[in-house]
Every structure is written in C-alpha cells, then in structure tokens.
Amino acid sequence: MKKHVDFTDKELRTAIRRGNIQFGGNTKLKIYGLLNCSSGKRMKRANRVFFETEEEALAEGYRPCGNCMRSSYQKWKQDAEKG
User: Fold this and answer.
1) DSSP 20
2) Among candidate residues 74, 56, 51, the one with its CA nearest the CA of residue 64
3) What is the 3-class SS of 23-73, one letter each residue?
4) Cα(41)–Cα(24) distance, rounded to whole angstroms?
5) CB-based contact 21:15 (threshold 8 Å)
6) Tens digit of pLDDT for each residue in 39-82?
7) Cα–Cα distance between 1 and 25 in angstroms, integer?
8) Angle at CA 72, nearest 5°, toward 69 and 76?
9) Could you tell me the pTM of the whole model?
C-alpha cells in the first residue's frame, strides 16, 4: 500500500504507466477500486492510497467498490454474509 501524499504527480503517473499501481483506495472507508472510478476521483488526496494488486488491497482489509467493481463487490458481500 502506497499513500498518495508520498508521490509527486510525475512519480504517480510513471508508477501507473509502469503498472506498479492498478487500484486506488480510501483509507477512511476502507474501499478500493479502479483508478478511473468516478467515486474514487472525488476523495481527498490525504485519504487516497494505491495498491499494485487486488489481493494486496484485500489483505489490507479493504473491500471492492460497489460502483466500478460490481462483480468483485457482490462476491465479497456474499463471502462476508457466509461468515
């Protein structure tokens, strides 16, 4: 997990182009999603973190975004209900 505040804009663009960052997350809500998600674009920079993989986000205790990752969210929700 990498914090947005630790990157300059140029470093961030480079990391995204190289594939080192593929998902963004919100530290307050513990939600992660795609970088182009309209919900994710509205969050404050101080609350934004980045993940290289979906597995990394899940391991950190984040859940998929219900907006941009609907199928992953539904699977996560079903698994959570099973206990």
Assistant:
1) S
2) 74
3) EEEECCCCEEEECCCHHHHCCCHHHEEEECCHHHHHHCCCEECCCCCHHHH
4) 9
5) yes
6) 888 889 999 999 999 999 999 999 999 999 999 999 999 998 88
7) 9
8) 130
9) 0.89
